[in-house]
Amino acid sequence: MTKGGMESVEVFTSEGKGRGLKAQKEFLPGDVIFAEPAYAAVVFDSLTHVICHTCFKRQERLHRCGQCKFAYYCDRTCQRAAWLNHKNECSAIKKHGKAPTENIRLAARIMWKIEREGSGLAEGCLVSIDDLQNHVDSLDEEEKKELRADVESFLEFWPSQSQQFGMQYISHIFGVINCNGFTLSDQRGLQAVGVGIFPNLCQANHDCWPNCTVIFNNGNHEAVRSMFHTQMRIELRALSKISPGDELTVSYVDFLNVSEERRKQLKKQYYFDCTCEHCKKQIKDDLMLAVKAGESKPSAETVKEVIQFSKDTLEKISKARMEGLYHEVVKLCRECLKKQEPVLGDTNIYLLRILSIASEVLSYLQMFEEAADYAKRMVDGYQKIYHPNNAQLGMAVMRAGVTHWHAGLIEAGHGLICKAYAILLITHGPSHPITKDLEVMRVQTEMELRMFQQNEFMYYKMREAALKNQKIQVMPEPSNETSPSLFHKKE
Description:
47% of the residues lie in helices and 11% in strands. The chain is α+β, with helices and mostly antiparallel strands. Strand 7 and strand 8 form a beta hairpin.
């Protein structure tokens, strides 16, 4: 079964998994298999005033809707593009007196689209909203209680003049959102800013070592002529060579966890048991739990103590980051690394998590040399664990490259930036804002490297003078959240 714009893929019944997607032709790494606009999407409650409600870009100055005073947009172009989806929402918010939560807003947008277009196959969709999995029957008592509360809140918000839907159907829509809501990120891909429903993407099954990745593209409305504008969309991109008939898979969770933990997470959030090759054979678990080998190999009891100390420290770090106590975070990281380094192997996930936090926070505090050392060790570990074309690996390598450049380590910085660029060309594509930024960095560091190789002394003199004459660029404030996950789960 294929649909307009989706000729390269087919829905099929995947053994033991239900529906899935398979390729209709060959794809090479970096190829876009399909792009899909959101069926419906909303900005998170906490970010409604700083994120555009059309393209989901973070902007310093946004235009507020003059009617509901709730929705914000980059400019008139984004506001006009949003009107079809915002029109009903706008009047409902005015009548209700305030905007409801993101889940209610998303359900309402889906319902208004169904009211306008019906619940059958929408243009370009392989499946209808009615046919998406809701897993309502798999909810525990607490989750069912939350579902009932959502339905009640929805009914309070839903206008009486709009098409009325039964309780069972409303519950189905909330179930669809709960297990199929896709996380939307800002234009730099660093922060989760919203949630949307993409029916075609929902058909792609999970694999911990997938052959595809999903990237959110905010689109571009900056061109003067609207014919050159591009729509907000997700892109399913090939990570490796895919042959006709191969199933197309994506990873619902970060691979940087042992197979048992990934399987628990998948069972809890998505209600299935992962049977992928990496989970069945526990591939790379040995690397993620590595300890020092040889004569200095620690006892099992010592390893257990250090792992528990690491878990406790990560909880303390999370609390300190929430409170903005970044010097305290650095202190905790240093103490933890002192305990970990004699015991844990270079690829141990607890060591890598501390190295990641330490490098990010130290960069923010302008302590670049120490940050660069930790970032290099983190990247070395990641490269032994992640798929070579993993998007999170590419982002980590990019951050490490920028940190090395700030530390004045131009050769290592340029090498890491080039490596990150090669990965993100495949995962994000050349037109993505992150890749474009990285290309500018790559060209700049290449030019600086040539200067450095010709005259090291003069290079550092010119660099010092340039940095003195410009306001120092502060690294982004560390976020307490991990990289945006593929599918959004209600907290």
